[in-house]
Amino acid sequence: MSRPTTRRRKTPVEISPRTLLLAGLGAAVLARKQARRSFDAAAANADQLRERAEAAANEAGRQVARLRGQAEAFAERAQAEFESRFITGKPVRARRAPRAATPRSRRKRA
Questions:
Q1: Is 49 exposed, middle or buried (0-12, 13-18, 19+ CB in 10 A)?
Q2: Three-class DSSP category at 11
Q3: Does 7 have pLDDT greater than 60?
Q4: How confident is the model over 34-80, as pLDDT tens digits?
Q5: Nearest CA to 75 among 86, 83, 85, 64?
Q6: How far apart, in whole angstroms, are the C-alpha atoms of residue 24 and residue 100?
Q7: What is the rounded distance in angstroms from the CA atom of residue 110 to the CA atom of residue 99?
Q8: CA 46, CA 55: separation in Å to the nearest integer?
Q9: How far apart are alpha carbons 67 and 59 in whole angstroms?
Q10: What is residue 47's predicted lDDT score, i.e. its pLDDT?
Q11: Residue 92: which residues within 8 A CB-CB, separation 6 or more?
Q12: DSSP letters of 26-53?
């Protein structure tokens, strides 16, 4: 069995102007410290964000350069093909026009 315990009564806290002033000063100090920590963290995150953005921009530049090279090579091949077909005077085969489809009932049956 447990012993019965008596409840302690809390003594009422008197709020004096001095207590109120000290509590306000403590809250201001804690808020300033927290703001300083948040500011330092934001500055560090900004540096990391800038580094990632620079890396992404460099990668995009490399991809654009690679695609530009491919496009230039394609343009050169297309120019060479155009010149070989139309400028050097090689005869070009005429294509036949596609025949129109006729319904089955009009076709001749063999």
A1: exposed
A2: coil
A3: yes
A4: 999 999 888 888 888 899 999 999 999 999 999 999 999 999 999 98
A5: 83
A6: 93
A7: 20
A8: 14
A9: 12
A10: 85
A11: 85, 86
A12: HHHHHHHHHHHHHHHHHHHHHHHHHHHH
Calculate the dihedral angle through the C-alpha atoms of 14, 20, 26, 28, rounding to the nearest 10 degrees. 150
Name the least confident of 3-12, 24-33, 52-61, 74-83: 3-12
Tokens describing residue 30: 């804690």
Q: What is the pLDDT of residue 110?
A: 47
Polymer length in residues for the chain: 110
Residue indicated by tokens 């008197």: 14
